[in-house]
From TrEMBL:
Its cofactor is Zn(2+). Reversible hydration of carbon dioxide. Keywords: Lyase, Metal-binding, Zinc. It comes from the Eukaryota. It comes from Lolium multiflorum. Residues 17-50 are annotated as: Disordered. PANTHER family: CARBONIC ANHYDRASE (PTHR11002). This is Carbonic anhydrase. InterPro entries: Beta_CA_cladeB, Carbonic_anhydrase, Carbonic_anhydrase_CS, Carbonic_anhydrase_sf. Transmembrane segments: none annotated. Binds 1 zinc ion per subunit. One of its GO terms (biological process) is carbon utilization. GO terms for molecular function: carbonate dehydratase activity; zinc ion binding. Its EC number is 4.2.1.1.
Length: 252
């Protein structure tokens, strides 16, 4: 693994040809923050209490988005009606606390995103995990993204499940154990090299090592390998820590 490069968020970003001006996504009040650091509006508990209904809550959120973002950013949204040209493909965990659009300030059209348990990418298999394979193929072959970013995170339940797996015994779930076994090589490595660490600390190490397994698995997809060999596609590993409020990146 190469050295840590914690500069991913602050690297010069590709100018969005559809929205070149550095306008804040949410308009109305003067705001001097860079657009990609501007968070979407937060629905606070008072707003949520008005609805007391799941559908009303969703509609309230959409109306706020429509009024504050969609209607006020035609330069961004008009071109997106015709096409998308995302620079990134992002893999993130389905965990409700780690939405990459929010944590990385990504704008609509900027990242083709897949979220699943523990942010895992299986090795290429024609007859299994077709949803992952088709998403990667579409992003790489059709959209021609420049970067695939795989993001792990702190206190990931999927990673804890992986580290808790026993060699024998029945599964407790229909799908979860088999899914997280994608990271089995990472689990074995972490347990072999970190025997003296407490379980929680081993989980922290595994949160990164499982990302590395997914990055290596990407190499088994022929269209990924092809574009990487041409230097037109790059892989980035990352970990978002919502306990300490940090984000690190690295390359293999
Ligand atoms: Zn997770």
């Amino acid at each position: 693994m190469g050295g840590c490069c914690c500069c991913f968020p602050s690297k010069p970003r590709r100018e969005n040809p559809m929205h070149p001006a550095a306008e804040p996504l949410i308009q109305g009040k003067p705001n001097h923050a860079p657009p990609h650091h501007q968070p979407p509006p937060v629905i606070n508990s008072t707003d949520e209490g008005k609805g007391k209904d799941a559908i009303v809550r969703l509609k309230t959120g959409f109306e706020r988005f429509k009024t504050n973002i969609f209607d006020k950013n035609p330069k961004l949204f008009e071109p997106l009606k015709k096409d998308q040209s995302p620079k990134y493909m992002v893999f993130a965990c389905a965990d409700s606390r780690v939405c990459p659009t929010l944590t990385l300030g990504l704008k609509p059209g900027e990242a083709f995103t897949v979220r699943n348990v523990a942010s895992m990418i299986p090795a290429y298999q024609k007859t299994r995990h077709c949803s992952i394979g088709s998403a990667i193929e579409f992003a790489v072959v059709v959209l021609k993204v420049e970067y695939i970013v795989v993001i792990g995170h702190s206190r990931c339940a999927g990673i804890r499940e992986l580290l808790s797996l026993k060699d024998k015994g029945p599964n407790a779930y229909h799908f979860i154990e088999d899914w997280v076994k994608i990271g089995m090589n990472a689990k074995n490595k972490v347990q072999r090299e970190n025997r003296l660490l407490p379980f929680d600390d081993q989980c922290t190490v595994l949160e990164k090592e499982a990302v590395n397994v997914s990055l290596r698995n990407l190499d088994s997809y022929p269209f990924v390998k092809d574009r990487m060999s041409k230097g037109t596609l790059h892989l980035i590993g990352a970990r978002y820590d919502f306990v300490h409020g940090s984000f690190e990146t690295w390359k293999l």
